[in-house]
Amino acid sequence: MEPFNPLNPELAVNPYPAYADLRENDPVHLSAMGAYVLTRYDDVRQMLNDGATFQHQYVAQQKLRTGAHVEDEPYFDYFRRMIFVSDGDAHHRLRKLVAKAFTPRQLTELRQKAEQIAGELFAEGAKQGGMDFVSEFALPFPLRVIGSMLGIPDSDHAEIGSHATALNPVLEFLPMSPEVLAQANESVEILADYFLQMAEARRRSPTDDLFSALVHATEDGDTLSNEELIANAILLYVAGHETTAGGTSLALFTLHNHPQHMNALRDDPEMIPAAIDELLRYDTPGQGTARVVMQQATFGGHVVEPGSFVLGYIGAANRDPAVYGNPCELDFQRDLARTRPLTFGGGGHMCVGRNLARQEFEVAFTTLLMEHPSIKVKEDQCRFRDTPLMRGLKSLPIEW
Ligand code: HEM
Description:
With about 400 residues, the protein is an alpha+beta fold.
């Protein structure tokens, strides 16, 4: 078969037939990029769960992606300190400190704020008679929610948020164009200055937001260094909106294509929380993640040597027929507790924001379906993003 090319732009529109082909014919496939592509649920889960054998090795990964000069790029100096790319003991230490700041109490308190933001954004769209669901809801909604969780005042969201959005491409593991790289370098410095000033203010007078909790988090006398604090606040701001925005647009597009499912949620909004996990399984925003193989590994009989790169395709695992019956069908009655979709990853790096994300989906779709039941999607104007791994739509106009 033709080597699979993770950069193929057609994958951004519909990657699922290509995944099905690979899963059936070459489940541990050496791709055109030189990295192994995994498409079976069990293999992707093995990669995510075994943090000793499959590591981020961020320096090696980024050299492959951006070139040997990567260590001179400003973005790299911040990103290498982030929890999501750290390995082993360094990761355990960061995870304990970051998890301390992420409490269920904050989530409960944030619900009301999320409802208020969703209500305002949809009311504005209704007043205009239409809106682009992506730029006027799916992006600003989670950006404002995570922003207020971090303690960013409403007056700064538009300006500071645009720099967080400019860093989205850095989370992909695909090469960046010189323009995208230059913008990411500029934006990371602006965000770092912003959070540095906030850190100084929170040290002088603590508040009850997530950022203040990060500033003051301690574990056995250990605290985050200033550099780690800034880097991980930037990560939460970026990771806290990018995937959620992609997932929200995908979920609305899916519901538009399944009107009977949309009606079922309108008739019984109590189904919404459970339906969210199935919507995210059916079309997954974070399609894949990468690791470096540290010691010889075997995936269902296929041997992979140390030093190899592996790309675990979460989007493919979530549609593996060995695990989910009729995986290409949307089914709100599916028992997902038995075999958890890998939407939020697994093992030690499992998404720290998963409950926040689920709450945001619940608030967004409850508000939309209950308060604006008559909205229509203008299907002919819908467009997918160009980024196959950070999947989502870039335009999804709706009208009232
Ligand atoms: C639909 C929304 C979301 C999806 C699909 C998603 C997906 C993921 C996945 C797959 C991972 C693991 C990546 C890997 O192992 O390489 C991850 C990790 C992470 N996510 Fe999310 N995420 C979402 C929302 C959020 C939100 C709202 C936040 C923060 C407020 C967040 C913060 C993080 C962080 C900090 C990590 C790194 C954890 C670690 O390395 O220990 N995510 N996410």
